[in-house]
Design brief:
Blueprint: H1 13-26, E1 28-31, H2 37-54, E2 68-69, H3 91-97, E3 103-112, E4 138-144, E5 156-157, E6 176-177, E7 185-189, E8 194-195, E9 205-213, H4 223-226, H5 229-232, H6 237-245, H7 260-265
Antiparallel strand pairs: 1-7, 2-3, 3-9, 4-7, 4-9, 5-6, 5-8
Helix pairs in contact: 1-3
Length: 278
């Protein structure tokens, strides 16, 4: 079975609650066994194609890395990637942190190559003018396509730090590695202090960063301009909403009182605006 096939059963209510409790207490959780080995291989193969076609090279800065390859806006590179944002074993965990009005903020890859040094510790919502603890505005996920180990650059985490204020960027903090088998998915609160690890091995550590934001927060990657509307028209309705073609709470993100889906894709009448129900 591959990622394009049946992705497996949804998590039960008890499992969802356990993940929600972990995120509340520690700031993160790991959903085990989301992808099988065939799915990981399929994504790795397609990612190699994308990196080659785009001529991806390290960004050569201290945050993105000097020995790390990153490919952005993966939704435009084929239907294989469309299953990631809506995966039924992961999206409900994210919705438990944000809500069902959440949006795709960014879908990108992170290939940490041998010799890469540790990324500075940071929080993904650090740029927002909000002082933690605050309601979550970001919930991010890292999908392990290869094993994540302490030696090869597994994401380093400061457990419980999502309630402690903002870190000093690049500060020296005691961390634990989020070690995962290929196919596992790390989910974390956007205020959690974390960073990619150093790769002291001779093999790449490859992950997919599937990031979400609350429906009222501007996305990291501009999905509306970065994706051809003709491509979005082929997406399933839930994915169209996730990339920003819906309207949050009947108000946020409209175009002259229409959803982008109505206005740009001619996709029906919709439910109207918040004002229409006042």
């Amino acid at each position: 079975m591959t990622v394009a096939d049946d992705p497996g059963p949804m998590l039960g209510e008890d499992e969802l609650q356990a993940h929600a409790d972990e995120i509340t207490e520690r700031g993160f959780t790991i959903v085990r066994g989301v992808l099988d080995s065939a799915s990981c291989d399929e994504l790795l193969e397609d990612l190699a194609r994308i990196e080659s076609e785009l001529g991806v090279r390290p960004a050569d800065n201290g945050f993105e890395g000097r020995a790390t390859l990153r490919a952005y806006n993966l939704l435009r590179h084929g239907p294989l990637w469309e299953r990631i944002p809506v995966h039924p074993q992961v999206l409900p965990v994210v919705e438990g942190v944000l809500d069902s009005g959440c949006l795709v903020s960014s879908l990108s890859s992170v290939r940490i190559q041998p010799g890469e040094t540790a990324q500075p510790i940071h929080a993904d919502d650090q740029l927002f003018p909000l002082e933690p603890p605050h309601p979550p505005v970001v919930c991010n996920t890292m999908w392990a396509l290869t094993p994540f180990t302490d030696a090869n650059g597994a994401t380093r985490i400061v457990p419980g730090s999502h309630t402690r204020g903002k870190p000093t960027f690049g500060g020296d903090y005691e961390t634990v590695p989020a070690e995962m088998d290929s196919g596992d998915v790390l989910v974390w609160h956007g205020s959690l202090w974390h960073g990619g690890g150093a790769n002291t091995t001779d093999a790449d550590r490859v992950g997919i960063a599937m990031n979400y934001c609350a429906g009222w927060v501007r996305q990291q990657e501009n999905q509306q301009l970065g994706l051809d509307p003709a491509l979005v028209a082929t997406f399933e309705p839930r994915l169209r909403e996730l990339v920003g073609y819906g309207v949050y709470q009947g108000l946020i993100g409209h175009i002259e009182k229409q959803s982008p889906e109505q206005r740009l894709l001619d996709a029906g009448a919709g439910d109207g605006m918040l004002w229409d129900h006042a």
